[in-house]
Amino acid sequence: MLDAMKRRDRQYDGRFVTGVVTTGIYCLPSCAARKPKDENVHFYRQPEEALAAGLRACRRCYPDRFYRSEDPDKRALEQVVARLLQDPSEGRTVADLARAVQVGTSKLNALVRRHYHVTPATLLGRLRVARACRLLVDTEQPVSDVAFEAGFGTLSAFGANVRRSTGLAPGGVRALRGASCFDLQLPRWLRIASLARYWSRDPTSLTEQVDGSVFRFGLRLGAAAIPARLDVEVEGRRARCHLTAAAASGRSRASAQRLGDGAAYEALSILIRLFGFAHDPRPFERRARAEVEMAALVDRQPGLIVPQTRDVFEGLIWVVAGQQVSLAAAFAMRHRLFARTGVDVGHGLVAPPVAEDVAELTVPELRAMGFSFRKAEVVLAAARDIADGVLATDTNFVTATTVEQSLLARAGFGPWSVGYLMMRTWGFADCVPVGDAALLRRLVEVYGLPERPDVPGTLALMQPFAPDRSLATFHLWQKPPED
Question: I need a surface site. Which of 233, 327, 371, 465 has the fewest CB within 10 A?
Fold first, then answer.
């Protein structure tokens, strides 16, 4: 904690506060004020403990506001992003965005990096594409009108951005409405062989299969969570996709429903998550090659990306099942749970359960599937909170700081599980799942360390890879065994 305070590490904001006995003030670990002597610092888990010790909140970092989620700059940024989702043309440039948030461009860059893990220009581009795709799928507006309403200055920029983000031209996105088949162009840098290895790690998986160049995934689509199967056949840089709804005899009443007009677009959005091609890894690879220890690793795995989970609930199941057990044990737990609660979508696959299905289970039932008593409690609490709308499941344009604070406040979630979820489920680019055993082993191997680094040591080793520490983590996880 002392090292985190000295580094002014924002990752520790919300995990503890630092009290200074000589000044009577408590601060966030990231506070920019001059650091006190070590012997004058006390640490408290919550501001209430610091207040009980007679300390008052710092007027530079405002820890009291932070713990009440009263960060005015963050709130202003979130409000502007919410408006731009409805009308991206309101913020055509980074300067426009800075004026809307009422900060300078330097501060805007720091805010967007901290809260969204991207640059302001990238954030604006994603907002425009998101708005454009919704207009293409949901309205009959001419394509040219969509381009300008979404904030693009030219039709060529519009087409290039949509193709880069979705693998489809704007006309192809519009054609998804009501479709069950579609073809998309994969990025040149994407390594299908790496994806195939990743998605075939569990040969007993009920929710994904890899058969040569064919990928199959069980999905839930639409507000009714209709079970469906997505078959993806990769031929060179082209992916031929076919969507099939579950038979009416499935275990869920929703399986008898017809896939809606937006099902293909939703399936495409999930596929982009599963294949991870929304994030071009090449800028990271160029920077990583400057680190001698990582250069060989990156050169061995060019085009590696971070595949995301289908949704928040699946991510929660992954992270709870995987805590402090082997990968094989986690696979087994997941298999038993999905065999019990999934819905048959054909070809030996099931659509993953929705939270409402799992919420009906009991602790003894989950225990019989291999979950510990504590893990069973955490899974059921999460399922019930999602089913009741208490736990938000939106992954689009939510801030990293909001996700981190809300997850850390939940029982059963610590820095490792929160970092993992932020990286694999929300897709944030600059996360480190501190304490991860596999990551620590790889750091020892790559850097020739005599022992596993502690938390400050781990963060120090990963710092050169900011703002892409999620991808650096994944490179280390996927380190080839022959290295």
Answer: 327
